[in-house]
């Protein structure tokens, strides 16, 4: 990563900068904006089509937003204010949303009643209706239950065997994706189970998924090697980490994040080392803001490092504790400390405009984690609240009093264990954010600003932006000059709000 003169000099003087303190210096460019490559990595082995990760916050990332963000090319981190089983369920819903080959189809036994199967489907939150029916004795395939079978069943006490379709067209275990699609189209079937010579099921293709993959824009999706959407999940330390990870791995989580307010600690490092011994899985660790901290986490086996202590819009860590670092300097120093180790940096917090994404990456980040910029989208958790003629959604810090009172996950993230309100020390606030519409539209806005910034710098890729990007420190007059001035704005642009 290229040395940044302004930031190097600041480090020598113990001076630290954040986004509004600096502007990127423009350079020579040859490419059009739609030609720049914004693919990157969240961790060593987890790629991103766009450098956007959603924050592990209970007002930001649950399965709905994680699905849409993965379809946009990023990745969502399911928060840990959910109990382990519910969190794993959210991961499963993302992984089941789009399937090329379903390796382990959810099967039912022929002697189960339709009522039992419906209850199971509701409890698990499954969004699909097709279930292979198997013999409980030898586990061979005996039929298929589809949405039509459920719909036309007038007596839910009937068994699956009494309701199922017995004429089932199957494929061999060697059936390819393309062969399955052709076969389903020719035979006009929606489900194709794959069975071995003994009639046991070894996988299944579903037409709706296969068709979406072949005919849709899956090239823009962030998917794994089996064409399933990628998803991450937050875990804690020690017992919480192992309890969650065992269930999450069973649901094919792609990467986990040890999510703490101060990751340069004995408990985090010991947990990381133990997890790396027991699981072959990428582990991102955060949060930190010092270069020495980045080195320690890298030495302990981190596959990605999350940088940011106190920059979030709902975070009060710096004023409550007196600790933290301005974000641009934190990103640069941490990235520089481990630049030869192939460990991606995720910049977490402080981003208010799309231009801040460009600055964060130019300072050394490989991706950015967004909270407030994604909160308020249609896919984020929470109800819409009408206020002052506008629509709003709840947004709160994971260190807010409400989050801490509700969840052990929030308390442990900030190294607290008391359940008494008067003994808790909040490091965040609760509030409202304006409703922003569909997440896909906001992501286009944010990545559009990033592409524009890369164009000004003359960077054709994320790595080139990290290498080429350089900064000027600006004065207060420069900050005023950078925003609209001397005008009464009568029509706001979609990517700029005066109240920001």
What report would you give on this structure?
This protein has about 500 residues and is α/β, with parallel strands linked by helices. It has two domains: about 5-95 and about 220-480, Aldolase class I (TIM Barrel); about 110-210, Roll (CBS-domain), CATH 3.10.580. About 35% of the residues lie in helices and about 20% in strands. An eight-stranded parallel beta barrel has the order 4-5-12-13-14-15-16-17, surrounded by seven helices. It has a three-stranded mixed beta sheet with strand order 6-7-8. A three-stranded mixed beta sheet has the order 9-10-11. Helix 2 (about 65-70) packs parallel to helix 3 (about 85-95). The longest helix has 19 residues, at about 440-455. The two termini are about 30 Å apart. The relative contact order is 0.17.
Quick gist of this model?
The chain is an alpha/beta fold and 500 residues long. Helices cover 35% and strands 18% of the residues.
The average pLDDT value, as a whole number, equals 92
Structure classification: alpha/beta
CATH topology of the largest domain: TIM Barrel
Strand order of the largest sheet: 4-5-12-13-14-15-16-17
Please, how many domains? 2
Gyration radius (Cα, Å) is: 25 Å
Strand content: 15-25%
**Sheet of most strands:** 8 strands, parallel, barrel
Given the structure, what is the number of helices?
A: 19
**CATH class membership of the largest domain:** Alpha Beta
Can you tell me the CATH architecture of the largest domain? Alpha-Beta Barrel
């Amino acid at each position: 990563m290229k040395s940044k003169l302004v930031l190097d000099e600041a480090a020598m003087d113990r001076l630290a900068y954040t986004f509004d303190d600096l502007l990127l210096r423009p350079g020579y460019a040859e490419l059009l904006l739609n030609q720049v490559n914004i693919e990157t990595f969240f961790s060593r082995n987890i790629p991103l089509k766009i450098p956007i990760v959603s924050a592990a916050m209970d007002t930001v990332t649950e399965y709905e937003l994680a699905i849409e963000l993965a379809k946009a090319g990023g990745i969502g981190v399911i928060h840990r204010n959910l109990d382990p089983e519910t969190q794993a369920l959210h991961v499963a819903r993302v992984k089941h949303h789009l399937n090329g080959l379903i390796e382990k189809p959810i099967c039912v036994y022929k002697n189960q009643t339709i009522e039992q199967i419906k209850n199971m489907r509701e409890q698990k939150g499954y969004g699909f209706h097709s279930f292979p029916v198997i013999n409980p004795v030898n586990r061979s395939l005996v039929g298929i239950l589809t949405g039509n079978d459920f719909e036309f069943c007038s007596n839910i006490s009937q068994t699956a065997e009494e309701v199922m379709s017995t004429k089932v067209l199957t494929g061999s275990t060697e059936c390819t994706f393309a062969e399955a699609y052709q076969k389903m189209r020719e035979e006009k079937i929606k489900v194709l189970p794959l069975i071995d010579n003994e009639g046991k099921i070894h996988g299944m293709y579903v037409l709706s998924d296969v068709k979406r993959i072949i005919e849709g824009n899956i090239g823009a999706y962030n998917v794994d090697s089996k064409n399933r959407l990628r998803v991450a999940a937050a875990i804690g330390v020690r017992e919480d980490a192992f309890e969650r990870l065992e269930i999450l791995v069973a649901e094919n989580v792609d990467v986990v994040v040890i999510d703490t307010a101060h990751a340069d600690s004995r408990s985090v490092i010991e947990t990381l080392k133990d997890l790396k011994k027991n699981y072959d899985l990428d582990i991102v660790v955060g949060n930190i803001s010092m270069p020495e901290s980045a080195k320690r986490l890298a030495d302990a086996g981190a596959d990605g490092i999350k940088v940011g202590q106190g920059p979030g819009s709902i975070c009060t860590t710096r004023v409550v504790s007196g600790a933290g670092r301005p974000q641009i300097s934190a990103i640069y120093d941490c990235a520089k400390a481990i630049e030869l180790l192939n460990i991606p940096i995720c910049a977490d917090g402080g981003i208010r405009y799309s231009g801040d994404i460009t600055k964060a990456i130019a300072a050394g980040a490989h991706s950015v984690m967004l909270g407030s910029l994604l909160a308020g989208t249609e896919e984020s958790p929470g109800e819409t609240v009408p206020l002052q003629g506008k629509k709003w959604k709840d947004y709160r810090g994971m260190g807010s009093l409400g989050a801490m009172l509700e969840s052990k996950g929030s308390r442990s993230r900030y190294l607290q264990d008391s359940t008494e309100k008067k003994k808790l020390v909040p490091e965040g606030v609760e509030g409202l954010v304006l409703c922003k519409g569909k997440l896909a539209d906001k992501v286009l806005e944010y990545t559009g600003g990033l592409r524009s910034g890369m164009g000004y710098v003359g960077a054709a890729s994320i790595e080139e932006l990290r290498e080429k990007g350089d900064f000027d420190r600006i004065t207060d007059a420069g900050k005023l000059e950078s925003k609209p001035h001397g005008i009464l704005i009568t029509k706001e642009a979609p990517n700029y709000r005066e109240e920001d």
